[in-house]
Amino acid sequence: MIISIASGKGGTGKTTVATNLAASLENDVQLLDCDVEEPNSHLFIRPLVEGTKTISTPVPEVDMEKCTLCGKCGEICQFKAIVVIGETVLPFHELCHSCGGCVEVCPEKAITEVDRELGVIEYGHRDGLEFIHGRLRIGEAMSPPLIRKVREYTRPGVLTIIDAPPGTSCPVIASMKDADFVLLVTEPTPFGLHDLKLAVGAVKILKIPCGLVINRSDIGDDHVREYANTERMPILMEIPFDRKIAEAYSKGEMIVEAFPEWKERFKDLLHQIEEIASRRK
Ligand code: SF4
Ligand code: SF4
């Protein structure tokens, strides 16, 4: 089962929920931190890192000795990532989606592929919990290919928890696609509600069952709850704004470490998710 934990906006407690859920289960669970632009689950999980892998993507390089400036590569590219300008062909590697189309259509076989580094993947363990995260190279704009590489570590037969990036754009979709359940984390404020609505819109497009965790649940107003009712979206957990929880967080401690009684609450959260997901099958 794959559970993707997402939120429309950053700072709502998405990583708190992902790490605590994973840590409360201890065995037969893996946590994939797909927030590759700013991974921070490792700060709480503190895994023993066992390996690092550099991740690259193929991008085109043109041999101008062979090129006849026919323009076919530029015509097929949907991303304007290769352009014929005057007497030369310019590939823009930062825009390239590595589809290989230009290589295929070049009649002169003038285009070859070279590797462009996207970032690294680090993997390790914390006891029975398997941990994997990606770190996007500084300056790199394309995170979905690296997210897909992190997701290749998904092991069948094991519960996979994905810490998705914030927002509702391509990186989030890459982190939610093919999940069995999306757990949305929000806070009961106007900003939280606004971004929650965007996130729900994305989940609906993907047709994945979802539920809600309200963090800092005793601040703000009731509009998030009213919206959840209207959307028939179950509120599966509420985490109150508690000074002791905030202090533990600031020291890099998980709730289930500082307050072991929360373990059962996170296990119960998983049971509720499993029940909802099984009803949809
Ligand atoms: S590989 Fe695809 S995206 Fe990249 S330049 Fe060629 S056609 Fe464009
Ligand atoms: S398709 Fe090949 S030959 Fe034509 S412009 Fe592009 S690189 Fe040159």
Summed up:
This protein has 281 residues and is of the alpha/beta class. It has helices at 14-25, 41-45, 72-76, 101-105, 144-151, 170-176, 190-206, 223-230, 243-250, 255-258, 262-279; strands at 2-6, 29-33, 48-62, 82-85, 88-91, 111-126, 129-136, 159-163, 181-186, 210-215, 235-239.
Outline the structure in words.
It is a single chain. The protein has 281 residues and is α/β, with parallel strands linked by helices. It has helices spanning 14-25, 41-45, 72-76, 101-105, 144-151, 170-176, 190-206, 223-230, 243-250, 255-258, 262-279; strands at 2-6, 29-33, 48-62, 82-85, 88-91, 111-126, 129-136, 159-163, 181-186, 210-215, 235-239. The longest helix is centred in the C-terminal third of the chain and has 18 residues, at 262-279. It is elongated, with a radius of gyration of 22 Å. The protein starts with a strand and ends with a helix. The model has no long low-confidence stretch (mean pLDDT 93). Bound molecules: iron/sulfur cluster (SF4) (2 copies). Residues 60, 76-77, 79, 81-82, 91, 96-102 line the site of one iron/sulfur cluster (SF4).
